[in-house]
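Hi R.,

As promised on Friday, here is the backbone we talked about, encoded as structure tokens. Could you run it through your design pipeline when you get a chance and send me back a sequence?
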């Protein structure tokens, strides 16, 4: 074959992408990448200093993908020094938290905010594939953030969610496969990721309501009525929530538990209202 034709064909098929890892210090970002690239796990904590950079090649369908991985330090100390430079031009972001540390889950929002700020006017979050790793699922006894809570956070933003363990390898190759395949799809479709509301099958209102119910302080708060509300007010609030969250209608993660909690809250309030 003519070498130029061959070269053109190879160029069309090969793709270069940049992905970055984000999340608090010590959640397991480097170990997840090491597990995938080197098939091993290092139990000793070696904090990433600034940024680690690596390259790997993967095959997605008929394309060869050259992946540049920038593994960020989670420690705030490194922020000013290096981290802010490296958000630019990424096609994929691996967001990691430790299921045994609630603050690392809560921090995901601020990681996204920081990224948006740093990217400034050129921020186009629609052209980036995000995956969320709920990591260290092997340490079941210390787990404090359950699957439905993590999944809801991720999927309500249009991000894929994976339960992972860099230690056992659980979920790691599935996560990377889905991640690279979504990035390839996005690149092949003009650089835009699919509309999340269409693909996830539940609304932002449903997701926000489940989150609100989870963090409510008592039954009044859960139903969204003032303490001392009448039976009618309680029933009205209950009906609205029941329609929104009924398991037959709502597929959002955690909707079944939220629905049960609302039923119980109504029952206990009605018992005490004359
Ligand atoms: P920074 O580079 O400081 O931002 O941390 P990091 O997020 O890269 O964390 P790292 O991968 O270095 O892992 C931190 C510690 O958690 C290490 O002691 C790892 O051995 C441990 N660790 C990482 N992943 C897992 C996991 O899935 N299960 C368990 N049990 N330990 C893990
Ligand atoms: Mg690291």
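Update: got your reply. Pasting your designed sequence below so it's all in one thread:
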């Amino acid at each position: 074959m003519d070498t130029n034709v061959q070269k053109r064909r190879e160029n069309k098929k090969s793709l270069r992408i940049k992905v970055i890892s984000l999340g608090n210090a010590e959640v397991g970002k480097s170990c997840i990448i090491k597990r995938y690239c080197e098939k091993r796990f290092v139990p000793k904590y070696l904090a990433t200093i600034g940024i680690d950079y690596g390259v790997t090649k993967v095959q997605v369908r008929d394309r060869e993908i050259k992946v540049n991985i920038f593994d960020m330090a989670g420690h705030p100390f490194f922020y000013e020094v290096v981290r802010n430079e490296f958000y630019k031009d990424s096609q994929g972001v691996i967001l990691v938290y430790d299921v045994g540390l609630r603050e690392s889950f809560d921090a995901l929002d601020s990681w996204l905010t920081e990224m948006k700020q740093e990217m400034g006017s050129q921020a186009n979050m629609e052209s980036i594939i995000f995956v969320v790793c709920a990591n260290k699922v092997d340490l079941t006894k210390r787990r404090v953030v359950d699957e439905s809570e993590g999944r809801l956070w991720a999927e309500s933003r249009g991000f894929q969610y994976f339960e992972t363990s860099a230690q056992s390898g659980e979920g790691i190759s599935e996560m990377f496969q889905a991640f690279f395949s979504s990035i390839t799809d996005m690149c092949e479709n003009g650089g835009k990721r699919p509309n999340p509301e269409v693909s996830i099958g539940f609304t932002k209102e449903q997701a926000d309501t489940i989150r609100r119910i989870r963090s409510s302080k008592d039954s009044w708060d859960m139903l969204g009525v003032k303490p001392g509300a009448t039976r009618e007010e309680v029933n009205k609030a209950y009906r609205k929530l029941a329609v929104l969250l009924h398991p037959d209608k709502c597929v959002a993660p955690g909707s079944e538990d939220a629905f049960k909690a609302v039923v119980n809250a109504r029952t206990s309030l009605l018992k005490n209202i004359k």
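One thing I noticed while checking it: The chain has a mean pLDDT of 90.

Thanks again,
M.
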